[in-house]
Amino acid sequence: MTRFSVIRPNIGRGNVLRMFSKTQVSPNGPNQSDSLDNKDLDSNAALLREYDDRRNKLCKEFKKLTDCLNDLNYSEYVDDNIISFFLYNNFMNNRKQLLQDLNSMTTHSIERLNLIVDKWSTFSNQIAKNREDLATIINRTSIEPLKKFQNGFNEMRSAIKRYEQLTADFNKYTQKVAKYKDSERTSTVIIKLNDYQSRLAQAQSDLNTLRAVLERELPMFLLKRSDYFQPSLVAFISSEILFSGNNLNALKELQPIGDEVSEVERQERQNKLFDSIDSLSIVNS
């Protein structure tokens, strides 16, 4: 089965916190005109959580699908072994009668029986192989990329938490500076005032730097999220189409072993079956 490769678009420009440590911004105090609005930040943080929840749910659904495909293959494998066991026991218990029945069969009947067994075995193996290939493709082109995409959400959440912590520190240091400015100018007060003024200046610088990064990277990350997943969606749809096509081809190869009857006879049998279904009390009630 054809493998689907997924080309990932560039989302953002790298680790947000790493960029924060490298970005150079003027260490002046926060400007109300260009500061990151708290409502916008809360709104983007809520969207980030919502999209990550969707990513996680989608990843789980894909995992359920691959588990179902693998479980179905295993179930058929177990069923085949059980059937083989009962057939073997039946043959051993009635081998004389079965050998007589086989000897009484014509060469054409034996050849047809062998054809049916071979065709069915080939069909079952091909269907199982198609399921296995589909599960592999879904895992490589959908589940693994979605798991890797979680790293981007984690980086953004860490940056938002860092911004919130810096905002809290900035407010705390502002209050401390105001407190010691209004206090009596003793040596201890001056030392503490200088210390908190230094901390406030650093908090201002870090806050401005991270704010600039978030204003640029967070909206871009939210906007480009669909570009990241689109190749996975295309690969998933293509793999489903290929899976269905391969199963139909396998079914077509199985058709010649059906009953050798004309189309008219087949239609008559089908009509009789429908009539018997219509006559059931549960249908007529």
Question: Could you please describe the fold and organization of this structure?
Answer:
The chain has 285 residues and is mainly α. It has one domain (35-257): Up-down Bundle (Substrate Binding Domain Of Dnak, Chain:A, Domain 2). It is built from 8 helices and no strands. The chain has helices at 16-22, 38-93, 95-104, 107-181, 187-223, 225-254, 263-278, 281-284. The two termini are 48 Å apart. It comes from Blomia tropicalis (Mite). Keywords: Coiled coil, Cytoplasm, Cytoskeleton. GO terms for molecular function: lipid binding.
Secondary structure layout:
Blueprint: H1 16-22, H2 38-93, H3 95-104, H4 107-181, H5 187-223, H6 225-254, H7 263-278, H8 281-284
Helix pairs in contact: 1-5, 2-4, 4-5, 4-6
Largest sheet: none
Tally of individual helices: 8
- The second-level CATH architecture is Up-down Bundle
| Poorly predicted regions | 1-14, 19-36
Class, according to the CATH hierarchy? Mainly Alpha
Distance between the termini: 48 Å
Helix content: over 70%
Beta-strand residue fraction: under 5%
* Name given to the CATH homologous superfamily: Arfaptin homology (AH) domain/BAR domain
Radius of gyration: 35 Å
> What would you call the shape?
rod-shaped
Class inferred from helices and paired strands:
mainly alpha
Average pLDDT metric: 77
H-E string: HHHHHHHH
Count the beta strands. 0
Instruction: Report the CATH topology name.
Output: Substrate Binding Domain Of Dnak, Chain:A, Domain 2
Report a brief summary of the structure:
Keywords: Coiled coil, Cytoplasm, Cytoskeleton. The protein has 285 residues and is mainly alpha-helical. The chain has eight helices and no strands.
